[in-house]
């Protein structure tokens, strides 16, 4: 792994985490969020600060390995395409928090979560195609995003008017 690639990838992932956290931090304690009806399978709040840092680390490490592997194999176009897919994914990732918590739009957040799930699955497919089993840990990311899509959709459904 090249330090330069890891630094760039980690910085992009950290910026995503900070942006998402900025929308989420105070909002999870807001009266609006407290009033929302939530399904019984929603994880307790303490789960999210454990899961997301693990996923963000996974994204940064697997993405670095994938970008470097593609570049080393002479696949500059494929590496560029992966970086673009990663950028789109990270925008969707942070965007969900802003749509749900800041804009308070659960229906749009459910759609954003679905787009994030598709993007995460595509990112994982690209990484596994390029790196094989080395990229397998990234599969946890679209799995979590799929769960988040179901949860977001259910919250929207319970609170629609």
Using DSSP, what is the number of strands? 0
What is the beta-strand fraction? under 5%
- Count the DSSP helices: 6
Overall, the morphology is elongated
Q: Into how many domains do the coordinates divide?
A: 1
Structural class: mainly alpha
Residue stretches low in confidence (pLDDT < 50, at least 5 long) are: none
Could you tell me the mean pLDDT?
95
Give, in order, the helices and strands. HHHHHH
| Assembly annotation | single chain
Distance between the termini: 50 Å
Rg of Cα set: 16 Å
The profile of the biggest β sheet is: none
Helix residue percentage:
over 70%
Structural summary, described in words:
The mean pLDDT is 95. The longest helix is centred in the middle third of the chain and has 27 residues. This protein is elongated. Helix 1 packs parallel to helix 4. It has one domain. It has 161 residues and is mainly α. It starts with a helix and ends with a helix. The protein is 78% helix and 0% strand. The chain has six helices and no strands.
């Amino acid at each position: 792994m090249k330090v330069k690639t890891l630094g760039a990838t980690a910085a992009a992932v950290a910026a995503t985490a900070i942006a998402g956290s900025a929308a989420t931090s105070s909002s999870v304690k807001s009266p609006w969020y407290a009033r929302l009806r939530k399904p019984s399978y929603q994880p307790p709040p303490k789960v999210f600060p454990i899961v997301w840092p693990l996923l963000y680390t996974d994204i940064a490490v697997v993405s670095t390995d994938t970008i470097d592997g593609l570049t080393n194999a002479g696949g500059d176009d494929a590496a560029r395409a992966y970086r673009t897919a990663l950028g789109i994914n990270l925008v969707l990732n942070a965007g969900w928090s802003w749509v749900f918590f800041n804009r308070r739009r659960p229906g749009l957040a459910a759609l954003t979560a679905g787009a994030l799930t598709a993007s995460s699955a595509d990112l994982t497919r690209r990484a596994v195609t390029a790196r094989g089993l080395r990229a397998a840990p990234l599969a946890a990311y679209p799995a979590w995003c799929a769960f988040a899509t179901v949860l977001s959709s259910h919250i929207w459904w319970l609170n629609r008017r």
